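Help needed: design a sequence for this.
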């Protein structure tokens, strides 16, 4: 199969996903195999929501909209332009996927197939409904994909390389278990925000998207904030308030109530507004419904600190603070070339 065939297939997949990426799902008759797949994918979305309480319709729709925007001819060509994508001997690449947000493993899936390899997928039980169905659609629009995509719930066997994502504990297991294979092993990372005190209300509202989208479960969600010494949080809390309906979600509310009770019983100092808490803490990974923060006095010292902690950090969200920063509100809108953990998966796949 030629690279252009693979690109064309994923572009058509993006066009298929677009029907489900808006608040009102709208069937488009010009989409290939639409009558065969439209109702079925609606059902898979419903199953995903029922199976995992964190996968609300809104968050599934947001994930699908993100992939709709990414899977265009222009984006795919721009992404692949720096590489010579030519694989004469396709390898079997195993992917062990996380399940924290909808379709979180799709970029790895796309990378393996677009580079010309075959894929063996071991999904998280938390996110097992959407991708197998989309894979079937991909096989219908490009029959040469048939036989190149395998899903398994059993022990991984007969693979040449692996991309595995998990917790810090499982990452250590992966490193030992897959030590004889070419691999990308990812562990826990969190994203941080840096405020200077000069942010506009609009900046802070955009930051709220980085904090609350997917309930803060993604590695690109901001879980830790660095603020200048003496920072007043009044404007910050005002900018967060439009997210207050999030407390109506039972799983979120349960976590909020539990974590608040723990903090109160432990007599920790924290600020809260009825649906969200902030707590001064040196840790980078905060619980659901909580944002950790830390004061800083010198921007250069903070840059050095963040550089020393880069293995724990996925994104830095700020405005004019550092070279590779992400703009407020953009952490959950990565481009195809924004690689997780800054590890170039296409380069890895073309070298195996």
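Sure. Designed sequence:
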């Amino acid at each position: 199969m030629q690279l252009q065939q693979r690109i064309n297939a994923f572009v058509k997949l993006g066009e298929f996903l677009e029907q489900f990426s808006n608040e009102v799902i709208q069937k488009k008759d010009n989409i290939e195999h639409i009558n065969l797949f439209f109702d079925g994918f609606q059902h898979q979305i419903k199953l995903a929501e029922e199976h995992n309480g964190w996968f609300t319709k809104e968050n599934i729709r947001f994930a699908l909209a993100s992939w709709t925007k990414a899977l265009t001819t222009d984006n795919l060509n721009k992404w692949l332009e720096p590489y010579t994508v030519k694989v004469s001997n396709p390898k079997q690449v195993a992917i062990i996927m996380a399940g924290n947000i909808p379709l979180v493993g799709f970029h790895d899936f796309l990378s393996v197939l677009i580079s010309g390899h075959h894929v063996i997928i071991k999904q998280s039980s938390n996110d097992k409904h959407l991708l197998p169905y989309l894979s079937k659609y991909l096989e219908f629009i490009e029959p040469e994909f048939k036989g190149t995509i395998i899903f398994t719930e059993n022990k991984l066997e007969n693979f040449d390389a692996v991309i595995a994502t998990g917790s810090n504990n499982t990452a250590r297991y992966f490193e030992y278990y897959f030590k004889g294979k070419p691999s990308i092993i990812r562990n826990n990372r969190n994203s941080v925000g840096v405020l200077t005190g000069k942010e506009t209300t609009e900046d802070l509202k955009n930051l709220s998207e980085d904090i609350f989208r997917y309930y803060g479960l993604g590695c690109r969600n901001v879980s830790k904030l660095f603020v200048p010494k003496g920072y007043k949080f009044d404007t910050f809390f005002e900018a967060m308030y439009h997210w207050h309906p999030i407390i109506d979600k039972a799983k979120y509310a349960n976590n909020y109530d539990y974590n608040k009770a723990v903090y109160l019983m432990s007599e920790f100092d924290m600020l809260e507004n009825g649906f969200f808490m902030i707590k001064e803490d040196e840790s980078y990974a905060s619980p659901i419904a909580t944002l950790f923060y830390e004061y800083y006095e010198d921007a250069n010292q903070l840059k050095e600190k963040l550089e020393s902690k880069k293995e724990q950090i996925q994104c830095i969200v700020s405005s004019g603070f550092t070279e590779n920063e992400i703009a407020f509100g953009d952490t959950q809108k990565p481009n195809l070339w924004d690689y997780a953990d800054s590890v170039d998966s296409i380069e890895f796949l073309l070298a195996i």
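The chain has two domains: 3-188, 190-317.
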